[in-house]
Amino acid sequence: MDRKRIAEAVERMLQKAVNELPPDSVEALREAEKKEKNPVAKEQLKTILKNIGLAKGKKVPMCQDTGTLTFYVKGKEGLKEAREGIEEGVRKATETVPLRPNSVHPITRKTEGNQPIINFEYADSECMEISVIPKGAGCENMSSLVMLSPSDGTKGIVASVLKVIAEKGRNACPPLVVGIGMGGTSEEAMQLAKKTLLVPLNEKNPDALAESLEKELLKKINELEIGTMGLGGSTTAIAVKIALRPTHTASLPVAINLQCWANRKATVRICGERVELL
Amino acid sequence: MVSALNSYEWNTPIERKKVLELHAGDRVSMTGIIYSMRDQAIRRILREKTFEKAIPKLEDAAIYNCGPLARKKNGNWELISAGPTTSSRMNALMPELIREHHISAIIGKGGMSQEVLDAMKGKAVYLSAVGGSGAVSAQQLKVNDVQWMELGMPEALWTLEAKLFGPLIVSMDAHGNSLYENVQRNVEERLKTLQL
């Protein structure tokens, strides 16, 4: 793997991610705007759609908060090149796209540019696949972990998710995409909840129970009537995506990652000299 | 409570008596100088009280909870994306900013606390911009000046020139009404049933 090639690919994918909302999200927001009856919500959804078009057309970031940049790298070799290439690509994209320098020291609050978070995963492939989720802080700040008791069951899961969204949803820039990580340990559930935001909104969940829970939750979340930007209406979420992992017999971790309407993401595949922006 | 909704075009600074004309649900498009302000800039104003150079007149000013994305081009700042940030982060700071410095309009997203609503009574309005719509907002705003860049691009104090910025939704008025509070009451009722 070539560091320079990775850096160039990362710069390009960041530009695409922050300027162009993926078509599945755009389609879901269009549908929501058509169905919405609340005039305040409808007006705001129209602004959101106009903003999406403007950002794509003018090649500028749709939101000033270009987020914390979380990367997922899949491959079997080239970890060193991937790390260096991503760091270089982020530095360049910060200038060229541009991205807002969002990273600060947690105590002094002094700016540190943009510091990516990089996750590696082994895959038995000659190609390397890199995905990025540039996620704004408004919605990230509203994400939560609930450690339930196994006997709380599905009812407890639904109640917890609804409670988090009822309390915090309006500040996460709804219509939301709700990523839920269920199972594993506390930290694994949180990671799953974010990573599941990469799944296309219209892709069916491979687990039938999770699929039916996604449908139930989406319906109930919208029945809360928090609405677009928290000002009421029938569109609070456009999708719920659940990721499952085996958990301890005494545990039921449920992590809830609230994603704003700007469900930004991009993936690039690098096979030798071939670079493909997916 | 709320009669017919009105749309206004306003120039900054905004006199207090004008603020009283607005009611929750109205729309305002704003023209003139507005100051971007979030956690750090507000804390600095409250702490140091020596901001005259940066803000000649904070009284009757409109502030914007926003951390813009901008780029310096040939010595001038070009605004690229500039939507609102979550206002509730500044809940603890805002009553003092209203009481001590008499700002008359807060532009942001997500609304603010009951304490802020109380502090706004008879004095100030809260206006909602559409979260995430940075590209649209940047078309209605221009950078006039930036101070306190050492706080970082998002937290610096940006003097922005607005041209028909909006339409902004009057979501918390100076009469104690909040659209967010109305929505939240309904959400909590619904939550009880949906959790069963």
Describe this structure in words.
The complex is a heterodimer of chains A (278) and B (196). Chain A is of the alpha+beta class. Chain A has two domains: 3-21 and 62-136 and 264-277, Dihydrodipicolinate Reductase, domain 2 (2-Layer Sandwich), CATH 3.30.360; 138-259, 60s Ribosomal Protein L30, Chain: A, CATH 3.30.1330. Chain A is 41% helix and 23% strand. Chain A has helices at 3-19, 23-35, 39-58, 79-96, 137-140, 153-168, 186-195, 208-223; strands at residues 68-75, 117-122, 128-135, 144-148, 176-184, 237-247, 252-259, 266-271, 274-277. In chain A, a hairpin with a 2-residue loop joins strand 8 and strand 9. Chain A is globular and about 50 Å long. Chain B has one domain (7-194): fumarase (Alpha-Beta Barrel). Helix content of chain B is 27%, strand content 31%. Chain B contains six helices and nine strands; from the N terminus they run βαβαβββαβαβαββα. In chain B, the strands form two sheets. Chain B has a five-stranded mixed beta barrel. A two-stranded antiparallel sheet of chain B has the order 4-5. Chain B starts with 6 loop residues before the first strand and ends with a helix. The model of chain B has no long low-confidence stretch (mean pLDDT 94). At the A-B interface, helix 3 and helix 6 of A face helix 5, strand 9 and helix 6 of B.
